[in-house]
Amino acid sequence: MWDIYDDLIDSIPDNLTVQDCMLGLHWTLVKSDFGTGMAMTVKGGRETSNEYRELVGMPLKNLAGWVKSWNWPEASLGMAAINSALNTAHQVSALTNQAFQTTQDPEKGNAFSTFLPYIKDKKVAVIGHFPNLNRLQEFCQLSILERVPQKDDYPDPACEYLLPEEEVVFITGTALINKTMPRLLTLANNSHIILVGPSVPISPVLFNYGVNVISSTVVLNEELVWRAVKQGGTMKAFISGSQMINIRKQRDGRLCTI
Questions:
Q1: Do 247 and 258 meet the contact criterion of CB atoms below 8 Å apart?
Q2: Where does 3-92 sit in CATH, by number?
Q3: Is the pTM of this model over 0.90?
Q4: What is the pLDDT of residues 80-95, one digit of tens each?
Q5: What's the CATH number of domain 95-224+235-257, 3.40.50.1970, 3.40.640.10, 3.40.190.10, 3.40.50.11590?
């Protein structure tokens, strides 16, 4: 069950250190030698001692190991630590052998917009209630699963019954933080799987576990993102300081941006 986590942690270079970190109201940030990584701040999980620990200066790989914690804020820090090393323009270029293309349109790489033609008339599940999902209803047979269900959402235990029947499954990156990802990937193993959100690490490791597409975010304007998160901003507050990116594994094994 821990294989996907251990592989992600092992991919972090040993010589990186934590330069700064912040556990924000909505988002968690970690800055390392490679850049800033973000993850959703997930609340709850196992209670810990809450003793103060100095994180700045510790090896990034050690903090990355916190992604395995059952205390969700700690796991959020671990996820952001991993993403600080992996969710970079350089990583995208290295994986795809393509120059990283910046855009002035922050919504250009939105996964749900990008894949509208692909999901047409298909059975589609989305794990996590993302904004503006209602527009998908007219294109596909949509099921939304959410831990705290909104109107017409399914509660998350419905994944055991629904996912094996779906053709396309979008999974929030927070499933790595709350430890539901391994089970969700197993249930959706006959589907086209797209991992979505800033919490998703841009790592080829994920393609070894049945993932077809990584839809994540690269921080480009670190100052803007840190300022927005310090002030309790949602993603809308700093989307102009980051860029959404979609990476797909092709049939020949090569990775490409979409």
A1: yes
A2: 3.30.390.100
A3: yes
A4: 999 999 999 999 999 9
A5: 3.40.50.11590
